[in-house]
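Retro notes (design track)

What went well: tokenization of the new backbones is finally stable.
What didn't: we kept losing track of which sequence belonged to which structure.
Fix going forward: every design gets posted as structure first, then sequence, in one message. First example under the new rule, 268 residues:
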């Protein structure tokens, strides 16, 4: 017997879909199509797009390098205090991004305790640099990766890892040969989410890195800047950002889920 979707679910589902699609449709209707090619190919727009893609890619790499070990520790450690640690790690998901930007500024700025040490000992000043953009994006995007991976690890259990350990495999070998292959489907999904979140980051970036053209002004910041001077330009750049985000998700998301559909690699 075939199962179907209850009819009662269609109404809220359609409303939810409309809530996502209609604002985008409103942008399309409001767009000045005669100026669209000129606006999205303006030098400032292209510089902002290039900076957004570059910094989002760099922050995604950082998310993987730091987030994978963190997710494994949270999922496999049974020590006391892990719940508190998990809550702290997921804090950027619920904090307003501007609050995260302020926190980074007062940590790594010239008046922050770590920023002061970096300035005095190495002459390094992070705020209002491209590196600050990457740090801000990593701060807000990494929890998405950690949530995806920790959920996959907890849902899949640790039976394979325990078997490998009983056969004499060292912890690093178990991680490399067993845990990582099990994580691949969830890792692909988490990478897509992290990149998309970093690409659209605004609040933490403008607070910690500022809005310097060619240095820290990513595409979301360029949209905000243009909204103060040229609404048509802001709308055109908003559509450009939407198209880029949709392309990223459409291209990467199916590949991220291939392991799930094929049944190889574990549950994600």
């Amino acid at each position: 017997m075939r199962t179907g979707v209850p009819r009662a679910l269609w109404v809220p589902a359609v409303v939810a879909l409309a809530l996502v699609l209609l604002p985008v449709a409103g942008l399309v209707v409001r767009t000045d199509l005669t100026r669209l090619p000129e606006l999205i190919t303006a030098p400032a727009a292209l510089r902002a797009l290039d900076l957004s893609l570059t910094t989002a890619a760099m922050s995604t790499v950082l998310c993987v390098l730091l987030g994978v070990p963190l997710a494994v520790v949270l999922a496999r450690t049974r020590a006391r205090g892990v719940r508190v640690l998990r809550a702290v790690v997921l804090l950027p998901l619920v904090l307003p991004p501007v609050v995260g930007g302020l926190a980074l500024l007062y940590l790594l700025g010239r008046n922050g305790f770590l920023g002061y040490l970096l300035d005095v000992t190495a002459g390094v000043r992070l705020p209002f640099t491209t590196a600050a953009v990457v740090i801000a994006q990593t701060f807000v995007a990494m929890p998405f990766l950690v949530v995806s991976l920790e959920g996959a690890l907890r849902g899949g259990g640790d039976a394979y890892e325990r078997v490998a350990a009983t056969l004499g495999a060292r912890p690093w070998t178990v991680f490399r040969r067993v845990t990582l292959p099990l994580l691949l489907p969830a890792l692909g999904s988490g990478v897509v989410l992290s990149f998309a979140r970093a690409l659209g980051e605004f609040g933490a970036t403008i607070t910690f890195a500022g809005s310097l053209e060619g240095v820290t002004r990513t595409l979301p910041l360029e949209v905000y800047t243009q909204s103060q001077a040229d609404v048509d330009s802001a709308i055109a750049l908003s559509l450009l950002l939407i198209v880029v985000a949709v392309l990223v998700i459409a291209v990467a998301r199916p590949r991220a889920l291939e392991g799930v559909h094929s049944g190889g690699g574990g549950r994600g």
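Added context from the reviewer: The chain has 14 helices and no strands.
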